[in-house]
Amino acid sequence: MGALNIAITGANGFLGQATVRAALAQGHSVLALVRSDASALPDAVKLCRCDLAESLPEGALSGIDAVIHTAAAMSNDQALLARDTTKATENLLTAIKRDAPTAQLVLASSISVYDAYAVPEGSLLDEAAQLERQPQKREPYVQAKLEQEAQAIRADVPLWILRIGVVYDDTRVWNAHIGQRLGPLLVSLGRSGEVPLAHVANTAEALVLAALTAPESDAETLNILDDNLPDRRTFIAGTHKGMHLPLSWRMLMPVAHCTQAILGSRAPGLLRPRVLAAR
Q: pTM of the prediction?
C-alpha cells in the first residue's frame, strides 16, 4: 500500500507524538488533531486545532484514509473521562461517518479491559480472553475504555482495536502494575509476574501498521506488548532506588474483599479485589 493521508488524534500527547513521527518516517501525510500546544510536532504535519469533546469542523477529515485515535483522558476522574474519552470518541466517529466514510479507524485501547478472574493464572492473555464482566467494580478509566471500544464497534467502520500495555520510554517508566509509591517507600505487589510494557516507539509503529492493514473482519483486536517482558524483581531493581516492601497480592486479596465490603466503591484501588487481580 502506498502513502496514506492519516489523521492522528491526541497528536501532541506522549503516544500521539511518537505515532506522528512513525507515520512521517514511513512517508505518509499526517493531519494532527490537537486541542492545544502543537510546538512539539514536526513542521511537516497539517494541523487541525479542535476540542474533540465539543466537535470537529465540518470537512476536517475530508480526504483522510485512516484515523489513529490516541486521544483519551489518562485519569480516573469520571467527569474528565466522560468528556475527553467517551464524548470525544462519539464526536470523532460522527465526523468520520460525515467526512471520510471509507476511512479505517485504529483505536488505541488498553489491556486493562480484560477480566483477570477469567484468565487462569499462568495462562496466556491473548485477544480471545474475556473482557471485564463487572466493570462497575473496576477503575473509571477501565469503564471508559470498555465504552470507547463499544462505541467504535457500534459505529460500523473498518476497525482495529489495539489493546496496549504500559507505554513507556527511557524518561517515563513508572506504572501502577508495580504497586504504590509512598514517598521513598515502594509497596509492590510481590516480585514475580511480568510487567506488561509496550515501548512507545514499538506501539506507535503498530498503530501505523494497523492503519495500513485492512482488518479481516469488521473489527479486529490485537494486544500490543514488548517481546521480552521483565518480571517485577528485574523492573524494580532497575527503576527504584529507595526502600522497598514487597507484599504478595494473594495476601492482600482477603484484605481487599473486607475493605470493599465496608467501603464499597470508596475503597482504594488496590484494596478492591477486581482491581488488585488485574494489576
A: 0.94
- The upper half-sphere exposure of residue 175, i.e. CA atoms within 13 Å in the direction of its Cβ, equals 19
User: Would you state the cell numbers that stand for residue 78, as one nine-digit string?
Assistant: 469520571
Report in angstroms the alpha-carbon separations of 125 from 45, 59, 165, 200, 260.
37, 40, 12, 21, 26
Nearest to 201 by CA among 158, 164, 229: 164
Write down the pLDDT at residue 1.
Answer: 61
Measure the CA–CA gap between 66 and 85, rounded to whole angstroms: 19
The 3-state DSSP class for residue 183 equals coil
pLDDT at 221 over 90: yes
Asked if residue 107 lies in contact with residue 72, where contact means CB atoms within 8 angstroms, the answer is: no
Query: Per residue in 165-189, pLDDT tens?
Result: 999 999 998 888 888 888 889 888 8
Those residues whose C-beta lies under 8 Å from the C-beta of residue 190, and which sit 6 or more positions away, are 232, 246, 247, 248, 249
pLDDT in tens, 78-117: 999 999 999 999 999 999 999 999 999 999 999 999 999 9
Strand partners, 66: 6, 104
For the four alpha carbons of 211, 214, 218 and 219, in that order, the dihedral sign comes to negative
